Amino acid sequence: MNLSKMPDPAVQGRDLRLDFVRGLANWFMLLDHIPHNAVNLLTLRNFGFSGATDLFVFTAGYAAAMIYGRLMWERGFVVAATRIFRQAWRLYAAYIVLFVLYVNAIGFVATQSAADALIGEYNVIGMIDHPVRMLAHGLSLQTRVLNLDALQLFIALLAGFPLVLACMIRWPNLTMFASIALYAAARQFDWSLSAFPDGTWYFNPFCWQLLFVFGAWFSLAGKQVGGLYRLPALRIAALLYLVFGLAVTIATHSPRLGALVPPFMLDAFAPDNRENLAPHRVLHFLALAFMFTWLVPRDWPGFQSKMLRPIIICGEEWLAAFCAGVLLSFAGHFVLITGPDSLAMQVLVSVAALMLMTGVAYYIAWSRRQDRISAVGAKA
């Protein structure tokens, strides 16, 4: 292979847009995971068909292709595959630790505070009826414990990524077409993975792989679509669809506005359909990504702003921020259902949770720097 043919995104430096978007996704997921909270009205899911999980999955695919694509190009499939599996194992280990802490925290709080409804709300009732079976299914990523599904999905997608990446490097467009075909077949024939104690995965990996592969495709073959940004008609179409998504989403939340929208339109576009990733949701996200990348270049000076630094840090240390966010969202929900039900309390809980999650990300980033300094000192 000729390295000079490697697409530009794979050979350029760190793209702060990825860290910014992943940080936003972590912030939005934390707020979305605290129910009965007015602050989560500000998150992405309330302004269109797509949400924080879409950001998370797409940027994960983009970053994975950018990191491991060059490695596979230079050193071959085996080396890159082992690095990808090592990362998948790291995520799996983090998931297991989080799963055990999270489930035990929910069970302990529910029993100590007589809030038994939490056990059913967070889908951990199996821990009481079948604790060994639930633990075994948890180890195999088959449980539907609330708010852990995004990490489960990412682990599954990353585990199958070596083959996808190898095909993407050689036949990017054909691989993208195969991903679309799998998405369509999974929706048509209802393919999914089973979950414990019943049902299927909350995010169907056979459908959600489409956004992951789209991210990888844009990372490695993005230069092929670079000319599309210069087409005013396409930008106008993307903007109009985003406005349409905003109007329909607002109409679903407001009965008065909903009466102004034709019923057939609400029936067709209002259903969230997160499990199987509805086509209008995919199109909305692609329009959003198209407009964002057109408006925000890689070298945008705003990324150097101190105001955006907390979000970028949560994107750089996305795994630590995600794990902290899952635990903090449960703590925030418990505080809101046991404390005074007021807007001020909801704002206070949300801000405190965001600050704590960001603090964890800052600590992990600081700890990494100390490790690098120690390693350099030891070599010297």
Notes on the protein architecture:
It is a single chain. 71% of the residues lie in helices and 0% in strands. By secondary structure, it is mainly alpha-helical. It has one domain (3-369). The mean pLDDT is 88.
Sum up the structure in keywords.
71% helix; mainly alpha; 380 residues
What's a quick, concise take on this entry?
With 380 residues, the chain is an all-alpha fold. The protein is 71% helix and 0% strand. Helix 12 (232-253) crosses helix 15 and helix 17 packs antiparallel against helix 18 (343-379).
Task: Indicate the topology.
Elements: H1 8-11, H2 16-32, H3 52-75, H4 77-112, H5 117-121, H6 126-129, H7 131-139, H8 149-159, H9 161-170, H10 172-189, H11 205-221, H12 232-253, H13 255-258, H14 263-269, H15 279-295, H16 309-316, H17 318-338, H18 343-379
Helix pairs in contact: 2-3, 2-16, 2-17, 3-4, 3-11, 4-8, 4-9, 4-17, 9-10, 9-11, 10-11, 12-15, 16-17, 16-18, 17-18
